[in-house]
Specification:
Elements: H1 7-35, H2 41-48, H3 52-55, H4 61-74, H5 85-123, H6 126-185
C-alpha cells in the first residue's frame, strides 16, 4: 500500500499540520503584540494564514484572551469608540475571504476523499469481482428460467380457463333447453 492510503501516515501528517498551524498562530500573536496592534481572533488568523475557527480552539483561545487583556491594560480604549462603516466593511471582506478559503478547503478535501475511494476500488481484487459477477449471472439465469416456467404455466391456465368457460357456456345453453322442454311438457 502506498503512503497515501496508510492511515497511520495520514494521521501523522494531519498531526504535524495541526502543530504547524498552532505554532503559526502563536507566532502571529506574538508579532501582533510586539507591533502594538489590536488583538482579535480574525487578525490573528489572518496574520497566521489559518482559519478563524482554529483561534477559538482550546490551547489557542487562552493565549489570545491573555494577549487581549494585556493589550487593554497598555492601550485603554476611548469610551465612545464605535464601529465605523469602513471597519464593518473590512470585517465583512475578511469574513468573505474566510468563507472562500473554507470552500476551497472543502473542495480539496472532497477531491482527496474521491481520490482515496478510487484507490480503494482499484485495490479490490479481480477474483472477488469475477466471483460476484458469476454469482449474479447464475441468479439472473435462475430468475429467467423461473419467469419462463411461470409464463408457460400462465398460458396453460389461460387455455384451461377458456376451455372451462366454453364448457360452462355449453352447459348453460343445454340447461336452458332442458328447462324449456320441461316447461313445454307440462
Amino acid at each position: 500500500m502506498n503512503s497515501h492510503g496508510n492511515p497511520h501516515t495520514l494521521a501523522e501528517a494531519r498531526r504535524r499540520d495541526s502543530l504547524d498551524k498552532r505554532q503559526r498562530v502563536l507566532t502571529a500573536l506574538t508579532a501582533l503584540e510586539q507591533q502594538g496592534k489590536k488583538i482579535t481572533h480574525a487578525a490573528v488568523a489572518r496574520t497566521a494564514g489559518v482559519s478563524t475557527w482554529l483561534t477559538y480552539a482550546e490551547g489557542i483561545r487562552e493565549h489570545i484572551k491573555a494577549a487581549q487583556q494585556r493589550h487593554q491594560r497598555t492601550n485603554p480604549r476611548p469610551a465612545d469608540t464605535r464601529n465605523t462603516t469602513a471597519t464593518l466593511r473590512t470585517e465583512l471582506e475578511l469574513a468573505r475571504q474566510e468563507v472562500r478559503t473554507l470552500r476551497e478547503d472543502r473542495d480539496r478535501m472532497r477531491q482527496a476523499i474521491q481520490h482515496q475511494l478510487g484507490q480503494q476500488l482499484d485495490a479490490l481484487s479481480t477474483a472477488d469481482l469475477t466471483e460476484r459477477v458469476d454469482e449474479l449471472t447464475g441468479d439472473n439465469q435462475q430468475l429467467q428460467d423461473r419467469l419462463r416456467q411461470v409464463t408457460e404455466d400462465n398460458h396453460t391456465l389461460r387455455s384451461r380457463v377458456t376451455s372451462l368457460e366454453a364448457d360452462l357456456g355449453a352447459a348453460r345453453t343445454s340447461l336452458r333447453r332442458m328447462i324449456r322442454e320441461e316447461n313445454r311438457g307440462r
